[in-house]
Design brief:
Aldehyde Dehydrogenase, Chain A, domain 1, Aldehyde Dehydrogenase, Chain A, domain 2, 2 domains, 7-stranded mixed beta sheet, globular, EC 1.2.1.3
Length: 488
């Protein structure tokens, strides 16, 4: 299957994107095959996927050198032309959306409807980021002087992309880097390298050699890129533990970093909600992508007067979910993405029996499914200091807890080293905002969750990250700020 590519003028070009075969690094505008290869695994079937490159130090040196050279001319391209190129790239991705959605489901495991939404989001994110312009600003002017703040690109930027949203999060790093005049090297997760590789292959038709590159590899690749003296910025999305190592490695060269890390998002449910509507909604938001979303609901606090009815409504809803291969149109929930994460979530499942908790399901693996499947599970009333409440499982298991007073539930919700997202559910918007403004998190929703925007900053408080992505502040994170002092 090889759909036509689209060039900058919007006309079909001779290049093709075969999204099911021939995966290579893209360095300086050319495909590079490595001596060593590895492969991913389809998490729904456990079948091996095609071979992908294992980058060497020489590949890293070649890519960084090419990016450094391309930066000299790319930063001089007028911002309007850079924005136009990113927009055309986004449009081309939309042209092959169906193929990318199928590839995404095959490597990541999510249902095809969710994969289609991710491809659409990737297109939307790039188009939106291409519309945001960082303008110089006069911050002071008198009869004798003028002071101006302006933004200049950093140089060579590396995007380290996770396995839960491998396409949209890659686009969310590529677009702002390129629009602001930087060059970009994408490092996909070893678990989900396929969409990232093909995304950058498609990008070669819209950008000069060296502006957008991709390197696939094993666990050595990330440190090589992070420690490289000619890399100016790391944009990393992943776990808190890995984020700390990224920060330590980047310190040696004082390169800029943006870290979007894990979360333990609470949902605070007030007694005035419509239980029959809100309970299924919260269950849906907690188990979307099989719980493998950094800002998914991870803890549900329900006011005590409605706790039992709310719990029963959530239990009832999760029994309607259908696990299966994401390519099956009837599937609502796919597998956990990889064996390592599957074993981690199984550890939380085993705690149910050892801690004598009550659960809607036992977290058992469906006997008719071969892959890394775990039945969505709600744990009823575990202790606040239990592992399921304190840690982030990043899988289809969530604790349900009761509360009495606002001050009490806020103290419990904020009693974590994480602060990525949170939500408040109530008919009383004044009350909702009052509670929301006291939550220590980067994004707080009232009567919704998971809603993000390419125009709004996204980042975490506490150990959930450093800096922010997307929106105007996200573009600024790819720039140096320069102050001009003009004497009249």
């Amino acid at each position: 299957m090889a759909p036509s590519a689209i060039n900058l003028n919007g006309q079909p070009s001779s290049a093709k994107i075969d999204v099911f075969n021939n995966y290579a690094n893209w360095i300086n505008g050319k495909a590079h095959i490595t001596p060593e290869k590895r492969h991913g695994v389809n998490p729904a079937t456990l079948e091996n996927l095609p071979d992908v490159p294992v980058s060497t130090r020489e590949d890293v040196e070649a890519a960084v050198k090419s990016a450094r050279e391309a930066f000299k001319s790319w930063k001089a391209v007028p911002v309007e032309e850079r924005q136009a190129a990113v927009t055309k790239f986004a449009e081309a991705l939309q042209e092959v959306a169906g193929d990318f959605a199928k590839l995404l489901t095959t490597e990541q495991g999510k249902p095809v409807a969710l994969a289609q939404a991710e491809v659409a989001g990737s297109h939307i994110w790039m188009e939106a980021m291409a519309k945001i312009t960082l303008k110089s600003e006069i911050i002071q002017e008198t009869e004798t002087k003028q002071t101006i703040e302006r933004y200049t690109p950093l140089g060579v930027c590396v995007g380290i992309v996770p396995w839960n949203f491998p396409l949209q999060l890659a686009c969310g790093k590529i677009a702002p880097a390129l629009v602001t005049g930087n060059t970009n090297i994408i490092k996909p997760s070893p678990f989900t390298p396929y969409c990232g590789i093909k995304l950058v292959e498609l990008a070669q038709q819209f950008f000069p050699p060296g502006v957008v590159q991709v390197l696939s590899g094993n666990d050595s690749l990330g440190p090589w890129l992070i420690e490289h003296i000619d890399v100016d910025k790391i944009s990393f999305t992943g776990s808190i533990a890995t984020g700390k190592r990224v920060m330590q490695s980047a310190a040696g060269t004082l390169k800029r970093i943006t870290l979007e890390l894990g979360g333990n998002d609470p949902a605070i449910v007030c007694e005035d909600v419509d239980i029959e509507t809100v309970a299924p909604t919260i269950a849906t938001l907690a188990f979307a992508n099989s719980g493998q979303i950094c800002i998914a609901i991870k803890r549900v606090y329900v006011q005590d007067t409605i706790y039992e009815k709310f719990r029963d409504a959530m239990f009832k809803h999760i029994k309607t979910l259908k696990l299966g291969n994401g390519l099956d149109s009837e599937t609502s929930h796919g597998p956990v993405q990889n064996e390592m994460q599957y074993e981690r979530v199984q550890g939380f499942i085993k705690d149910i029996e050892s801690q004598k908790w009550i659960a809607a399901t036992g977290g058992e693996k469906p006997i008719n499914l071969k892959g890394y499947f775990i039945t969505p599970t709600i744990v009823d009333g575990p202790a606040d200091d239990s592992r399921i409440v304190v840690e982030e499982p990043f899988g289809p298991i969530v604790p349900l807890l009761s509360w009495k007073t606002e001050s009490e539930v806020l103290a419990r919700a904020n009693n974590t080293r994480m602060g990525l997202g949170a939500s408040v559910w109530t008919r009383n918007l004044e009350r909702g905002r009052r509670i929301a403004e006291q939550i220590e998190a980067g994004s707080v929703w009232i009567n919704s969750h998971l809603e993000v925007s390419p125009y709004a900053a996204f980042g975490g408080h506490k150990q959930s990250g450093i800096g922010s992505e997307w929106g105007l502040s996200g573009l600024k994170s790819f720039c140096n700020v320069q102050t001009l002092f003009l004497a009249k």
